[in-house]
Design brief:
By secondary structure, this protein is an alpha+beta fold. The chain has 11 helices and 28 strands. Helix 1 runs parallel beside helix 3. The chain is globular, with a radius of gyration of 24 Å.
Length: about 500
Amino acid sequence: MTKQTGTTDEMLTAEVVIAGGGPVGLMLASELGLAGVGVVVLERADRRPTDARAWGLHARTAETLDRRGLLVPLLHPKAPWPKMPFAGMWPLLQLDRIDADHPYLLNVPQTRVEEVLEARARELGVVVAYQHEVVGVRQEADTVTVQVATPDGMRLVRGAYLVGCDGGRSTVRKATGISFEGTDASVGGMLCDCVLPSMGQERRGITRTEVGTVNINPRPNGVVRIVTTEFGRPHPDRDAPVTFDEFRGAVRRILGRDLDIVDPTLMTRFGDATRLASRYRDGRVFLAGDAAHVHFPYGGLGLNLGLQDAANLGWKLAGALRGWAPGELLDTYGTERRPAAEAVLDYSRTQLALLDPHRNVTALRSLFGKLLEFPDVNRYLAELASGAGARYDFGDEDAHPLTGSFARNVAVKTSDGGTSLVSLLHSGAGVLLDFTAGVADVASPWSERVRVVRADCDDAPAAGLLVRPDGYVAWAVSAAPADPRGLRQALARWFGAA
């Protein structure tokens, strides 16, 4: 980033400007920094939050972080959960049965995720500017200029691209005129992190009554998170601070008794407003995370959805800035991620619907509980919740079955020794694994963008595999001899002209 001083405003310039320094903005900044892109992150708060609104990273997110060497710092003995509730039901979703490298819920707070991501971003030269609030956006033919309010007055920041990672009330989204369509809140929820001396006698998880639900979950750090949801009682003022008496009153209405809550720290309110941006791109401006989609927050779905947005967009923006990206590559961000958000929003609505206290829903829950006892049904819903079943439709009916799916990790042997697909993806470049297909030479003109690896593998999923930087399979072939035309087409489609 460079600095210019003018007669009225101090001008900062970067290749990419990111509005919002939460986990999505920091993940995107890390992805861009890995590609050598100059990035400035503008965050209106004065520091990273100390209280975690979201907890939990799902399987696909854990896999994505692993492919950047970011998973290990988040692991600890109490973090992996092999099971998770589906709308508070029993039996639980069996995450340890899904097809994933990390078949569990990683029980870590959003604050720790942000800490790890900010450290990585700064290591890569990203500038993270706190107390910098975006208040205006002006888009030109080749640049985007952002007006920023700082403690020292107004400042202008200019970049080739702007990405709004600034939450559900995104200033960037509003400034670009992208509509945010959906439904208003119909339930009122509140959250409280506290000490609960009676935790040993309390029912862990969700208790559903004729009024709503109370979810009691102890965290690895000893704090207990209590979440209330009341149906037909949306908050009249979403921004009003939650008082201790208000929260205790909600618990009493739902459970019919008090909880001995001690030392409350974080208290906040939420609803089930569900909205999706009509488009994810407007010229040189993109949306990611809650700026593009909001929904009922149970299950950490939004955090994971947003981190996947960042992983999808980062390498594509880098390609555009470095001049090799095909003209339509940036548009694939919206065509791939918006349907993914639609699926998560529908899943969130389903979860909430099954918590409704209506007697008809009670009958439906009974049926769902029985269906969950079937392993295939349980696995399907577990893959839906964890993102492990997500894949992209590239529109090629004749493509290999693996195309569009997430590439599972495999151990490989090269002339330099043993390694793995996960390790090969740490650099953020694409990877071509040539096991027996004999196509390594075909990819040599793309060697600056794609790492070409001739390797042996005991459990190779295919004879040859082209993997995008975000971990998704761009091309595969089952056996040699491989038709080089298909590989060339895939390389040109995702990594530009030879």
